[in-house]
Amino acid sequence: MLVLGIETSTSVVSAALVDAEKLLAEVYLDSKEHHSRRLLPVISSLLGEVGVKIKDLAGIAVALGPGSFTGLRIGLATAKGLAHAGGKPLVGIPTLDALALNAAGVGGLICPVVVARREEIYTALYRWQEGRLRCLVSPQAVNPSSWVLKLASYGEPVYFLGDAVMPYRKVWEELHERAAFLPSENALPRAAQVARQGQIRLSRNRGDDLFQLKPLYLRPSAAEQKA
To answer: What are phi and psi of 104, to 5 degrees?
Structure first.
């Protein structure tokens, strides 16, 4: 089952192709160039290198957020366009779920943190348990200082990853020896995780409605607040 994954929740533009057994290819660019210029060429190059066309796919998986409002809109619009044109099922994957999978297997709490506006972060809390990711606290937008107090109440190691690690590292380090940070290559969202989660969903015939699927913003955009 070939699945294309698309990830544009942060500054990273990423696309990946997986089958039932392995990751076939992944392109990962952390670039200041606008996602609208990068994404389609990245997808085209990825598929071309592997020799796969849209018609060969079993489906497409796309990160839904939370994250950059503009990035999410571009990623979802692109995924919808490809799915509609190719007649392929589409699956939306929560960004924080996919990001947390970069820390699969660690012994402790897994805390993805993504930059939000107004000095907040998007975050959730997970634990790797019995070979699967278990969500302990649902995705939310929160102040970092308030969040670290909640994390401290668990009294166990917390593994941080995401683009909000560095901007708020001093806050996370208030946990002292219980604060752990993943290597940089595992710190940001990857389309491979999105694709793999999409593959699981598609294998259970749990595709999403192409026309109803929307980004997971967690809060209104600036434009919506002004309306």
So the answer is: -55, 135
Encode 72-93 in three state secondary structure: HHHHHHHHHHHHHHHCCCEEEE
Sorting pLDDT into bands at 50, 70 and 90, what band is 226?
very low
225 DSSP assignment = H
C-beta neighbour count of 86 within 10 angstroms:
16
Domains of the chain by range and CATH? Answer: 3-94+189-226 (3.30.420.40), 96-186 (3.30.420.40)
Assign 3-class secondary structure to 104-153: CCCCCEEEEEEECCCCCEEEEEEEEECCEEEEEEEEEEECHHHHHHHHHC
- What's the pLDDT tens digit per position in 82-123? 999 999 999 999 999 999 999 999 999 999 999 998 899 999
Dist. CA 54–CA 99, nearest whole Å: 25
CB 65 within 8 A of CB 8: no
CB contact at 8 A, 164 and 53: no
Whole-number pLDDT of residue 222: 47
- Asked whether 47 and 54 are in contact (CB, 8 A), the reply is yes
| Contact yes or no for 91/206 (Cβ under 8 A) | yes
Task: List the one residue out of 10, 11, 14, 12 whose CA is nearest residue 193.
Answer: 14
- 181/111 Cα distance (integer angstroms): 10
Q: How many angstroms separate the CA atoms of 165 and 173, rounded?
A: 10
